[in-house]
Amino acid sequence: MDKFFLLSLLGMLIIVYGVSGSIVPDGDIDMVKELESFDIEEEDDSAVDTYAVPVWRSEHGSKILINVDSFDAVGDGVTDDTMAFRKAWETACSSSNSVLLVPKEGRYLVNATKFKGPCKHGMVIQIEGTIVAPGEPENWDPKLPRQWLEFTKLSAATFQGDGIIDGSGEKWWAESCKKNKSRPCKGAPTALTIESSSNIRVKGLTIQNSQQMHFIIARSKTVRVSEVRVSAPGDSPNTDGIHITQSTNVVVENCKISTGDDCISIVNASSGIKMKRISCGPGHGISIGSLGKDNSTGIVTKVVLDTAFLRETTNGVRIKTWQGGSGYVRAVRFENVRMENVENPIIIDQFYCDHTTCEPQASAVKISQIMYRNISGTTTSKNAMKFACSDSFPCSNIILSNVNLEKTDGTVETYCHAAQGFGYGVVHPSADCLSSSDNDIAASDETQVPELEAVQLPTERHIVHTEL
């Protein structure tokens, strides 16, 4: 990633320290220390092989170069190169220490394809040119309505390069019910999916103009994403940047994301997620959820966002759940975040509804142990912080430390409903509306909810939102 961007990002972070009348309650000191200190381990990039192009040897041993052009790919952006890519994949997947090369300067038209593993150890997918999707929705393969490029059952594989994955989403967006009210709401393909895989590295790629979501990490573990750029117009519908579902031990760092939906979204059965040095905007912010839709169980735990800059987004850091769900969001830390003209900088919404109406329901996804530390910037709305929680399952142990949010043309407030917590250091606007831990509104964190390992996960192969 551009060094100037990183320096600018770090320079814009305002860390506000101070002393106020608030102090940490004695009984909560241990919990605060735990939330302040827990982390998700980041692996040393030097331990990951990277290769220049073209290269077929490294200091760790020989590499076999598999060039898609050698399988009759044309790369003119018009000729269908799908079969060439599939044949190149078969050869690379069956070869130890292979480098599958998409050459620079080429523009390769590729239709919906599942690139299946398991493959031989040490595979590198080196993308230097552009992979482009067909632009006409009616020509899409009906057998793969929700995928464009899907990689499944890989282990110890690396995706890297300066190339572009372009979803050609313009006509898909025009057919969206969000853009054209006369059209039915339906799903559309995701540009890049990594599914049921482990020990995966993704570095340096650009993913742009996806039909819907840009990049999904599903049912995977130990995934490292760095220096990836995601780009789509701010009015492109449902074009989430990076979507993490049913995955553990995922690190996303040094990424710049501009979309028409969530920059990063984390949903059910995900744990050990770290986001670091993230630029977001336009878009809907960085979200946990939505969870609990259709009375389902949603569990997300151990999430860290450390160092981010959000500009002109609908939301800043958000947790959103549907009424009627069950499960929990627990042990989350948002820290070192700078916001500029963000509509809802800090928001918990247990009444999330993307329909016209949603009937009130008593059950809810339990939200607890959420820390906001060193958050600063400007908002476009009166409510800089909003904690809209369930009466039956109130939010508990919301911790605010060194928060300073202003409105450029007026005063700011904090909205609370059924929310318990406290602040220390500078907290502006005041969060006095949070109830104390001894108030009857506070629900115990010992509420009996299933652990992550016990959750019955959905059986469908792809966990992606249907268009709403």
Automatic annotation (TrEMBL):
InterPro entries listed in its UniProt record: Glyco_hydro_28, PbH1, Pectin_lyas_fold, Pectin_lyase_fold/virulence
Annotated EC: 3.2.1.15
Cellular compartment(s): Secreted, Cell wall
Catalytic residues, chain numbering: 284
Name recorded for this polypeptide: endo-polygalacturonase
Family, as annotated: Belongs to the glycosyl hydrolase 28 family.
Signal peptide: 1-21
GO biological process: carbohydrate metabolic process; cell wall organization
SMART domains: PbH1
Keyword Nucleotide-binding: no
Recorded superkingdom: Eukaryota
Enzymatic class: hydrolase
Record-level Gene Ontology MF annotations: polygalacturonase activity
Keyword S-adenosyl-L-methionine: no
Recorded catalytic activity of this chain's protein: (1,4-alpha-D-galacturonosyl)n+m + H2O = (1,4-alpha-D-galacturonosyl)n + (1,4-alpha-D-galacturonosyl)m
Record keywords, A-Z: Cell wall, Cell wall biogenesis/degradation, Glycosidase, Hydrolase, Repeat, Secreted, Signal
